[in-house]
Amino acid sequence: MSRPRLALVGGGRSEPRPARGPALELIALGTGLTLGAVLLGRLPSWRAELGTFQALMAAAFAFYFLAVWRGWHAAHSPLATPIVLAVALAARVAVLPVTPTLSDDVYRSLWEGRVVAVGQNPYHDPPVSPRLAGLRDDLVYPRLDHPERSAIDPPLALGGFALVARISPTVWAMKLWVLLHDLALCVVLVWWGRRRGAGATSAIAYAWNPLVIAELAGSGHHDAISILWLVVALVMAEERPVLSALALVIGGLTRLAPLLALPFLWRVWPGRARLVSVALLALGLGFFVYEIRGVDSGLAAYWRRGANNAMAVETLVGWTRNPLRGGLCALGVVALVTLSLLWRRVAPERATRAALRAGLIVSPVVHPWYLSWVVAFEPLGRSPGWLLLSLTCLLAYGVFAPPAEGNNYHLSLGWRWVEFGAPLALAGTVAIMRRRRARGTADRPPRRSGESRAR
After folding, report:
1. Can you spell out the DSSP letters for 188-243?
2. Phi/psi at 322 (nearest 5 deg)?
3. Cα 78 to the center of its chain, rounded Å
4. Residue 99, Cβ neighbours under 10 Å: how many?
């Protein structure tokens, strides 16, 4: 027997029911995004069919932008968390079988893992070394870019590669290793969003980003591992400072970028966390520097290779008429930004986001997957310009057709103005609109008592 509905009598109110409309809208957008990922996963080669790849990515971004824009309506729906995580998982699984063709980094990771697993030193012996001849095969070795260069990743990254190589020395296993960390990061961002009161849908900015899905689950870039530990370090900074310090050490010894957060975390950590971070980073980075020392190291060769897909650093080099001075000016920009953030005592997570953005802007090399570092902090607040850049950066692979230069392709200056200029124009337009809206709100006279209930 059904229970009668309560009428609103005498000012009484019925129990609020969760709105299903926003959740259904989110499901529809997530389904569209996942369909795009499925179609991407069916392409035989993203490089050979670059125009089709970029068109499908643009379509996936359309669903993504709508989800980021509309997701706040379902932020506190009980269905928000399962929807966000289910779409994140489905889209990543859809592109997992893709053979990486836009980048060969996953093959380098797999190779160096094999080298460490058999007890050799990839910092000293590049792939062409005669001592590693027994490891060469027909699948991995021919796909290594610059086989004359030794390893450049920090020691914990190589340790992870070796672990994968011991379990299953395959591209599938390496991509799965990245996928597990990427999904763990999505879970952390959902939990962090709910904890901050922004809701689970704030994580859509990273979890559903098509560039992140394609570059990490599709191409197997291992940046997700380091980003995960960086975010954990920031989340745990005040409640679990020692664990925060350990997480930053793991992130910094997997990729060096998390070290940008050290000055900001140092300010909020107690003494014991500072001691843990300094001791372990000194040990790990000391070993790393010792292993890569010398002008013939892989890292030295990496820095000598010149700029690629950069804007600001080329402007600085042109202004100073000296590549070294231009590079020093770029480092000076990041240092000034860091000092400004410390002086203004900006919260560590927001300061880290700003420092990563500054570092990316002045970096001499801006590969598309580098944007995943910036996108990981978009759940803190949507930045339309940066989100658009995560789409336009795909021009770095070629302009709607596979370039004849292959991996040696460099986007022309004119197209780079499109790649970076369109997001900059959008960011400027949004900033002006927000300022006008804020000014209009400030100039509006306060409502009198009872006016808010009119109409």
Report:
1. HHHHHHHHHTS-GGGGHHHHT-HHHIIIIIIT--THHHHHHHHHHHHHTTTTSHHH
2. -155, 120
3. 27
4. 14
Per the CB < 8 A criterion, the answer to whether 37 and 213 are in contact is yes
Question: Phi and psi (nearest 5°) for 441?
Answer: -65, -40
Nearest one of 125, 107, 231, 201 to 161, comparing CA atoms: 107
| Distance, C-alpha 331 to centroid of its chain | 21
pLDDT tens digits, 19-72: 578 889 999 999 999 999 999 999 999 999 999 999 999 999 999 999 999 988
Tens-place pLDDT, residues 124-138: 999 999 999 999 999
| Alpha-carbon gap, residue 358 to 335, rounded angstroms | 9
CA distance 355 to 351: 6
pLDDT digits (tens, 9 = 90+) for 226-285: 999 999 999 999 999 999 999 999 999 999 999 999 999 999 999 999 999 999 999 999
Q: Is 243 exposed, middle or buried (0-12, 13-18, 19+ CB in 10 A)?
A: middle
CA angle 264, 311, 248 (to 5 degrees): 25
Contact 365, 310 (CB under 8 A): yes
**DSSP state letters, 381-399:** S--HHHHHHHHHGGGGG-S
Phi–psi pair at 392, nearest 5 degrees: -65, -20
Q: Would you place residue 338 in the very low, low, confident or very high pLDDT band (cuts 50, 70, 90)?
A: very high
**C-alpha–C-alpha distance, residues 209 and 91, integer Å:** 10
Torsion of CA 298, 330, 156, 249, to 10 degrees: 160
Inter-axis angle of helices 384-392 and 413-443, nearest 10: 160
- Quick one: the chain helix, strand, coil %, rounded to 5? 70, 0, 30
- Residue 203 makes CB contacts below 8 A (sequence gap 6+) with 84, 186, 189, 190, 192, 193, 379
Q: Mean pLDDT across the stretch 362-391?
A: 93
Please, which pLDDT band fits residue 6 given cuts at 50, 70 and 90? very low
Predicted structure pTM score: 0.90
Is the pLDDT at 408 greater than 80? The verdict is no
